[in-house]
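Tip: read the tokens left to right.
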């Protein structure tokens, strides 16, 4: 595992830890690192999402990462837990997450509403168990800051990200944008079938898949946001500090995420030039963190995304421009 000094440096600095850890897909074949073959015993808290079943399939049934296995699952209901166990090939269901303590060396927290994530993860982080928190990380940035400060104090690696953002496609598009000097506006399409007033945190539930890739590609310096609604259809306007204006279109039917930019030559669609690695980067980066302690993104980046979602949530109610109130760690 990374030393505590290096861990803290990676956690607090920069926007993406791609500079500290570019991800397995970006590195290609590498010399073996300390901990790279460490056996990982995962416990999962939360089974309402299909994600939990997918983790079981990836690690237990398909065995895409030799030496990595989901050993335990706790579900919000017995039915959720039983389905995750059956479809994910997970050996044991626990009645209380505390039963996993001392039996696992990696944790995944996977609730639909982000308000449940941090309380569920905290005892394990305090015990030094590396933790992945499924999207979105948390419901309030201030609480996220306190949680991450505890993780830094304990030297426990923690991360969280959208699978759409933590992909080879998004990183390749980010690299393309670095060479484009005349971008004036951005339009990004993303799905949000559950609407803005759903029981899982409104914009937090699916909005992260649209917002986080935008921030990966164009940066975190979003100063103000405004949500607009007409007939149940929603858009978000985002004003960057450098004058860039981004418009997010939330679709109800089409399942996908597309990004367009306006440049001097007209409108251009941003398309990845690379295939997604197999297994996908989102899983590879998680496993690498579990084994080595190296973070795939910084803690500041995680908190900035939550701060933007909070501003969007306020604007859903006011229909006005809302300042993004960044919380610094």
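Filled-in amino acids:
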């Amino acid at each position: 595992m990374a030393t505590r000094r290096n861990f803290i440096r990676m956690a607090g600095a920069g926007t993406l830890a791609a500079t500290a850890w570019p991800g397995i897909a970006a590195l290609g074949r590498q010399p073996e690192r300390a901990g790279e073959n460490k056996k990982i015993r995962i416990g999962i808290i939360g089974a309402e999402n299909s994600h939990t079943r997918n983790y079981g399939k990836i690690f237990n049934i398909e065995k895409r990462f030799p030496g990595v296995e989901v050993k335990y699952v706790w579900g919000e209901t017995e039915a959720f837990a039983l389905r995750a166990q059956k479809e994910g090939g997970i050996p044991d269901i626990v009645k209380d997450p505390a039963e996993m303590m001392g039996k696992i060396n990696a944790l995944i927290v996977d609730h639909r509403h982000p308000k449940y994530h941090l309380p569920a993860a905290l005892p394990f982080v305090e015990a030094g168990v590396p933790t992945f928190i499924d999207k979105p990380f948390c419901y309030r940035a201030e609480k996220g800051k306190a949680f991450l400060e505890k993780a830094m104090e304990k030297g426990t690696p923690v991360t969280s990200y959208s699978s759409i953002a933590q992909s080879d496609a998004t990183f390749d598009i980010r690299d393309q944008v670095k060479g484009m000097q005349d971008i004036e506006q951005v339009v990004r399409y993303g799905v949000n079938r559950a609407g803005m007033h759903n029981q899982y945190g409104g914009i937090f539930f699916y909005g992260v898949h649209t917002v986080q890739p935008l921030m990966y590609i164009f940066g975190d310096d979003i100063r103000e946001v405004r949500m607009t609604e007409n007939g149940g259809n929603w858009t978000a306007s985002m004003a960057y500090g450098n004058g860039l204006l981004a418009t997010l279109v939330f679709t109800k039917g089409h399942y996908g995420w597309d990004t367009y930019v306006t440049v001097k030559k007209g409108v251009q669609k941003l398309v990845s030039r690379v295939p997604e690695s197999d297994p996908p980067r989102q899983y590879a980066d998680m496993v690498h963190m579990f084994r080595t302690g190296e973070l795939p993104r910084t803690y500041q980046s995680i908190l900035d995304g939550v701060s933007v979602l909070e501003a969007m949530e306020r604007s859903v109610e006011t229909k006005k421009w809302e300042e993004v109130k960044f919380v610094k760690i």
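Confidence is low (pLDDT under 50) at residues 1-10, 17-32. The chain has two domains: 4-163+277-296, 168-273+309-323.
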